[in-house]
Amino acid sequence: MPRLFVALEVPRNAAMSLSLLRGGLPGARWIDVENFHITLRFIGDIDGRTADEVVDRLDRIERPEFQLSLSGVGSFGSKKPHSIFASVSQAPEMYALQAEIERICQRLGLPADPRKFTPHVTLARLRNARLDDVVSYLSGRGNFYSSPFVVNRFVLMSSKESVGGGPYVTEEVFPLYEGGSSFGLPAMEAHPR
Q1: Residue 76 belongs to a domain
Q2: In which domain, by residue range, is 90 found?
Q3: N or C, which terminus of the chain has less Cβ within 10 Å?
């Protein structure tokens, strides 16, 4: 079974904005534009039966669509940076969706994700990049931002075992319903139950 993870897709216009950040950093292996995403929950290698249960439970999630934007760049690994990322806006709906997905995974017996959820889009993986080069790269791009975009679905993706960065395959798509509160309408009025 391939490695699975739940993610939000980055729309083409935001991905094209991110692509302008590529280059200018020795030791960086840049992620292909079509592989940009925001990981909500890494699941990993699981058997087919468990994968079917994950899909069944994710398919029952009923949450409103919401808006996100990308703003600023940073790196993971303070003294020895290992990746460059774009930050994601702090949307309460995204955090609620991520928390529900985490609860579902734990109820199915998957171990809790040991890392705190830090929404981001990985732009590059670093190998032997000098800290000074990373600092210089980040300082020249700190004012990056994308136009807001609507997130109207989340996806289950798979990746082949590799060094990271794709290629990724969308295995399942889970729609979010229209009328989220981020568009000026309370969710309950926009989508009565």
Answers
A1: yes
A2: 3-175
A3: C
79 φ, ψ (degrees, to nearest 5): -85, -30
Name the domain count of the chain: 1
Selected catalytic residue, list 41, 120, 125, 141: 120
> Is residue 191 among the annotated active site residues?
no
Residues contacting residue 171 through CB under 8 Å, at least 6 positions apart: 4, 55, 155, 156, 157, 158
- Assigned domain for 147 exists: yes
- Per-residue pLDDT of the chain (193 residues), as tens digits, is 578 999 999 999 999 999 999 999 999 999 999 999 999 999 999 999 999 999 999 999 999 999 999 999 999 998 899 999 999 999 999 999 999 999 999 999 999 988 899 999 999 999 989 999 999 999 999 889 999 999 999 999 998 766 555 688 999 999 999 875 444 433 333 333 3
Determine, yes or no, domain membership for 137: yes
Q: Are 6 and 58 in contact (CB under 8 A)?
A: yes
Q: Is 120 a catalytic residue?
A: yes
Please report whether residue 145 resides in a domain. yes
